[in-house]
Amino acid sequence: MLAIIGVVLYLNRMTGNSIMSFLVFVLPLPSIFYIAKYGIKQGLILSVAILLFPILIGDFIALFYVATAVVVGIVYGYGVYKDKDNGWLIIATTVFTAISSFIEVYLLSAFVGVDFIGEMKSLVEMMVKQLQDSGAVNIPSNVTVLVLSMIPMVLILTALASAFVTHVAAIVMLQRLKIKTRKMKPMSEWVIPFKVALVFAVGIFANIGLKYTNNETYQIILTNIYSLSAMVFCADAFIFLVIFSKVSKRRYLGILAILVFILQPFGIVIGLFDCFTDLRKRVLYNYAKSL
């Protein structure tokens, strides 16, 4: 387990600290495996040993990422050891991953001399200028503020995605190691509850309210409500297309499914149909299975 962390840190130094943020979901796995098999006390010994690696090489940034991963690994490993359900594991992992993301963006970046918010602001302003030069209209004067206001929500959603990847990787590897885990629901059963979907469906129309208020606080709230609602339905559309690609044996659809986050209107439409009609049942169980 220690060797896994050592290899990751070595590769990170060889690449100039450029891969650490992309391997966040890998770093907790050694602690998870060890704690799930041997318990918290033995896992704490391993965790302390893991923290010695970045300390010995004197890499503060790596120490931050490793320490965060150790905390996530301890929490997740504890959940597996105590036979917690999958929902508890994902939520707990998301919370601690989100906390580390906020620290990284708002505190750590400034400490090491990287102004993440400032760079994001400059990027948005550059994009807005390009849109204006190309003749785009109806761009709010405070669009930079509205975009930056979505950073906390994006960090939380990113933490959720990272936690899910960690969860799937952990479940697969724990089963290979013959460690008891709870089975995940089949992807075909990953659905948004009707009442929750209804709330987000209303949130899709939040952008209309921007035309009727000049209050910046209200505009920020409405922008975040719309963005979150759109992301939820796009995620549902992504799941739908991945399932469809699997049962229809059209693998390319699984790859193209990522486009729903880029072509957002199409993703929203597919997600709405999936949530409020029997589209998934008709397509996946009647049409796709007959291919």
Keywords:
291 residues; mainly alpha; 0% strand
Coarse structural class: mainly alpha
Average pLDDT works out at 77
Distance between the termini: 45 Å
Strand content is under 5%
Instruction: Please summarize the sheet with the most strands.
Output: none
**Helix/strand order, N-terminal first:** HHHHHHHHHHHHH
Radius of gyration computed on alpha carbons: 22 Å
Q: Low-confidence parts lasting 5 or more residues at pLDDT below 50? A: none
Describe the structure.
The protein has 291 residues and is mostly helical. The chain has 13 helices and no strands. The longest helix has 32 residues. The radius of gyration is 22 Å and the shape is globular. The N and C termini lie far apart (45 Å). The mean pLDDT is 77.
